Amino acid sequence: MANKNSSIPILVMTLILEMALVGCVTGAASSGDSDLNSDLNGTWVDSDGYEYTFDNGNLLISEGESLMSKGTYTTSGNSMTMTVTHVHGGHPGIEGMLESRWYTKSQYEASPLGIYTSDEGLSQIFYTVTGTYSVSGNRLTLDGEIFTRK
Predict the structure, then answer these.
(1) What is the arithmetic mean of pLDDT over 112-139?
(2) What is the pTM of this model?
(3) For the chain, which residues make up each domain, given as ranges?
(4) Which residues neighbour 70 within 8 Å (Cβ) at sequence distance 6 or greater?
């Protein structure tokens, strides 16, 4: 019988790479007052099928019906800061490895996958990122990536 634990590091690396791509990592969080642009409220889809749902400061990232991560966001001028506070056990990169529920960073660290995840890996799963954005009608541009309102 094959050792199921031998595939865990590969799945963790897959999750890390997916989260880095989805996160549009551009730098550290900025400080300042947030004006929470209400034009962002709703679900936005990119060409790869990733969906960002913005709801008055709450953020949900999914891929179709698969939940990936959630957290918060703030805006100030044309700057947006997103902070991922939870990852979902049903995420396509780790589906079946964890119970299908939300995990905080400390819960993830204590999970079977967390023990195989480095500090660098955790910082790519649970991250804060700041970038530029603009909304024009049904089009959201987030760090150069185009999203369409769903």
Answers:
(1) 93
(2) 0.77
(3) 4-149
(4) 58, 59, 60, 61, 84, 85, 86, 88, 102
Q: How far, in Å, CA of 111 to CA of 18, rounded?
A: 19
Chain CA centroid to CA 23, Å:
5
Burial of 103 from C-beta contacts in 10 A (0-12 / 13-18 / 19+): buried
Quote the DSSP letter at residue 34. Answer: -
Average of per-residue pLDDT across 83-111: 92
Residue with structure tokens 């009608």?
Answer: 137
What is the mean predicted confidence (pLDDT) over 17-41? 56
DSSP 125-148: HS-EEEEEEEEETTEEEETTEEEE
Local confidence band at 74 (pLDDT 50, 70, 90 cut-offs): very high
